[in-house]
Amino acid sequence: MNELNYLITTAIFIGTVHTLIGIDHYVPFIVLSKANAWTMKKTLMIVFVCGIGHVLSSAVLGFVGIGLSQSLAYLVDIESLRGTLATYFMIGFGLIYTLWAIRNTYMNRPHTHLVDGITLEHHHRSIESVDVHHEASPKTNINTLWGLFILFVLGPCEPLIPLLMYPASSHNTYAFIAVLGTFSICTLTTMLLATWVGLKGINAFRLKSLEKHSHTLAGLAITICGVMILALGI
User: What is the pLDDT of residue 156?
Assistant: First the structure.
């Protein structure tokens, strides 16, 4: 029982700390929510769904691997590969989103036409409306949501299998479920709280001059986030 308590305490610590350190667990939600003017409720629902996919993908791999008596080294290698793929996916996602945003801003910039000797200035409204929030089109929103979900399903919870699931598997079913459940709840809760705090903070600053570039800044933030993870291994 002492060992089980230790595992549960470890699950709480790792679930919380690894989420806070991993900026990819909340930065994409914060910047995309701000750029697309999502409500707090919608944003947190997206975080919850993506978080479930994030935890379940590693949990399922752990279940299958342990059930098939795969070695820990083999499962860790798979998780490492998934982490690398997820990082490159994040960088690619951020770059594509940035290019889309730059193109959209360029297409919507005011410009002039000479008509019968009279100079007329107007905007082209293409993919995105030019209202105060610069909201993306429904199609773009769907693509963004799918991109986020794929990113988090692809991205592994690296500590889950080697530090928690494998040790817990030597105990009974209750211990295994308790440790996995504790880690999952702490990870999801930390993702939700970090996103909520980040959004509250970013909404406190209203920089009108940057609003038209909000999508571009969001894409750049996600790209930089991916590059930092790749370079620093966080």
Answer: 87
Split into its structural domains, the chain has a count of: 1
User: Is the pLDDT score of 87 beyond 70?
Assistant: yes
Please count the residues of the chain.
234
Domain that holds residue 158: 2-108+124-204+212-232
What is residue 63's three-state secondary structure?
helix
Distance in angstroms (rounded) separating the CA atoms of residues 50 and 46: 6
Q: Report whether pLDDT(130) > 50.
A: no
What global pTM score does this model have?
0.82
CB 152 within 8 A of CB 51: yes
Are 59 and 165 in contact by the 8 Å Cβ rule? The answer is yes
Secondary structure (3-state) at 119: strand
Provide the pLDDT confidence category of residue 210 given band limits of 50, 70 and 90.
Answer: low
For 41, residues 6+ apart whose C-beta sits below 8 A from its C-beta are none
Residue found under tokens 């610590």? 13
Q: Does the CA dihedral 170-174-177-180 come out positive or negative?
A: negative
- pLDDT category at 138 given cuts 50, 70, 90 is low
From CA 124, how far away is CA 60, in angstroms rounded?
48
Burial class (CB in 10 A: 0-12, 13-18, 19+), 24: buried
Q: Which two tokens stand for residue 216?
A: 């571009």
Is residue 118 a part of any domain in this protein?
Answer: no
Mean predicted lDDT score pLDDT of the chain: 83
